[in-house]
Fold ABC-2 type transport system ATP-binding protein.
Amino acid sequence: MESSEMYAIKAVDLTKSFGSFVANDKLTFEVKRGEIFGFLGANGAGKTTAIRIMCGLLEPTSGQLEVAGFDAFKQREKIKQSIGYMSQKFSMYEDLTVAENIRLYAGIYGMSRKDIKARTSRLLEQLDMKEYQKTLIADIPLGWRQKLAFSVAIFHQPKIVFLDEPTGGVDPITRRQFWDLIYDASEQGITVLVTTHYMDEAEYCQRVSIMVDGRIAALGTPAELKSEYKSSSMEDVFIRIARPNWNNSH
Ligand SMILES: Nc1ncnc2c1ncn2[C@@H]1O[C@H](COP(=O)(O)OP(=O)(O)OP(=O)(O)O)[C@@H](O)[C@H]1O
């Protein structure tokens, strides 16, 4: 495969089958370094499977994939060391405090105690959460939890962070604040691949792909896709591509 210096992720005909079922069908796409890439698709389209492969957790069936310069068939451990991951479904341990969660995750990611201490206090200041460091995660609001979970996922300064529906269930203002953190991370050079069901968030991405039934049906900047599908919003683009029968049945 061509050198992937400028790409954080490069997939060519990436395929994953479970028996005779093809969950990812010849995905070909690239994510540039530092890019904020939206990975969209209806439920069951195959996003989570692709993310698990890109995180080095699942071996692809065929095709080619490089993540952070490493081969997804042969160097899965190296990939795991180069990435961060956050999902709304599971993010922080509720029965540990804010500071304990940060220490736990940073330790898992192999950071030294000295670095953890110095950076924990900086992080809590940035998030305006210093006075909550001894508060149990269960006792802080969901939106704060998610901002903290994102900060923890990039605490070890990975090359790429994967966000699987990171803002599910939070209000629009908190979601906007969450996106400020995403932009900060991207400015620091961290590549962000994010899935979301909120189409206002799709507009915040630099480029998006839309998966339908295991295939990438569309890929481009939000402006390009709106123009291509003669739509005024990403919501409209998404409905046209991902739910072709939606207009007929509603
Ligand atoms: N281990 C597995 N064995 C068999 N089929 C699987 C397995 N994992 C996923 N699938 C199937 O692959 C398809 C894609 O699932 P996937 O979770 O990747 O979709 P998704 O786009 O992430 O959807 P969601 O947004 O609901 O998580 C589904 O039909 C699912 O049932």
Notes: The pocket of adenosine-5'-triphosphate is lined by residues 18, 21, 23, 41, 43-49 (CB under 6 Å). The first strand starts at residue 7 and ends at 18. The radius of gyration is 18 Å.
